[in-house]
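Amino acids appear as letters; backbone shape is given numerically. Here is one record.
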Amino acid sequence: MDLKTQELIKQGKVLPLMEEFYTIQGEGAHTGKAAYFIRIGGCDVGCHWCDVKESWNAKLHPPTATDIIVDNAKKYAETVVITGGEPLMWSLDYITHQLQAQDIKTHIETSGAYDFSGVWDWFCLSPKKTKLPLDRAYEEANELKMIIYNKHDFKFAEEQAAKVGKDCLLFLQPEWSNREKMIPLIIDYVMEHPQWRISLQTHKYLNIP
């Protein structure tokens, strides 16, 4: 990668774009709403159950001008979800300012493990044990989405919930490959702890991206 491209990436004017698509948000507080997804390559959090491991190596995804990404998004949606990979590995100030200048709402889905950047209408924090969020991520979170793979994850979820603000929405989401085992446990847990809600990956049930 040449020095000019490296500098543009540092400024957030170029991003390693894995994919972009218009679809229905399948998870969390905005389930069922239309949104344009921008998936940025690069992640070292390393969740063993990750369903987009092809996103981990940023070098596999072409450096793409952020202005082109914004132009594509504005053709489709009033809301953009920036995800990954781990999107906060990159500076997101430029892309979010450009999107908001087009009256597009900006949402992010992140582990929170990297320095905060961007201007967000909705901040979905999904902490991972392998690399915990930084303090700023807890402060910014509108939504805490905890992935439940086994029984021990309920304890981790409560530890993370204790760190977010009182108005942050709390979600438990079964990890897809283990959903049949964990959904009954999540149902029981939410009924006993009604501050939590259930999130499902409804896009997978609907067979959409």
Notes: The helical segments are 3-11, 66-74, 93-101, 135-140, 152-161, 179-192, 202-205. The mean pLDDT is 96. Residues 179-192 form the longest helix (14 residues).
